[in-house]
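Suppose a colleague, Dr. K., hands you the sequence of a protein chain of 206 amino acids and asks what its three-dimensional shape might be. Before reaching for any lab equipment, you can write down a predicted structure in token form. Begin with the sequence itself:
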Amino acid sequence: MASESEELRQLGNVLYKQGKLYEAIKHYRDAAKADESDPAPLSNLSAALFETGHYEKCVQQVEKASELANAKGQVDPASANKLKIRKVKALIMLDRLPEVLEAIAPDEPNAELKTLADAVKKALLSNPGISNREKVRKEKLEKIVKDLPRFKSVLLTNQEYYHIGHDEQQSNFKPIDAKQEKTAYLFAGIGDARHLHGTWMKIHEH
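The predicted structure, expressed as tokens, is then:
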């Protein structure tokens, strides 16, 4: 009999194949919680996260899945290659090209990984500044945040105070209120109470 984690993972796989990626993500996360030692749900989760464009989270889940597989001594070469390829592609999408070369060994036997490494090397050679792009982007963001004012400035430079209001007197009383046995009115920030007096006058007139 399949465990709860495996059942949830298989349900996630069905949803994944149907293109219901966000529902699949939920099932994979639930499966991972049901068995925190199983790398399979995290591997599937990383695939769904990649397909939905959550590349940073994809990388995180790939690394977690790899760690669990190594800890259990259940490293399957085919599964390990799948995870590594997914991580490399996610890093490329994140524009973290130097990390791609760090993730792929110089003597990598997998053909797809070798192709990806060669493509990244060519990109870095043709545009040396590309390796710095992520660093420059972060520095610019940090500068923007640093230069932003910590508090919103006051729009009015001079304080204004009016001990007598200058808005038109209004009554809160409506004819339908007279049909009620009790009616309550709220006057917040009442000032010179002109609206309160206006309401009293309308009640008296009615």
